[in-house]
Write the structure tokens for this entry.
Amino acid sequence: MGFAGHYLPVPFTIVCRECGQSFEMVTFEDHCPHCRMVYGVTPCHAFDPANVMAAGREE
Ligand SMILES: [Zn+2]
């Protein structure tokens, strides 16, 4: 997952499915600052927030 720390072409504002609060996702893998749920998107879907997937919480 070498792309995880790369910046998205356009940041997404997504609503966290864990805590219901919105946050701005700026890299291909980023986490909710409220509950630390990690989200990821693949580069081929980087323009569509619908393809952002929850990857589980950080420890
Ligand atoms: Zn959250």
About this structure: The mean pLDDT is 90. The radius of gyration is 10 Å. Strands lie at 7-15, 22-27, 29-31, 37-40, 53-57.
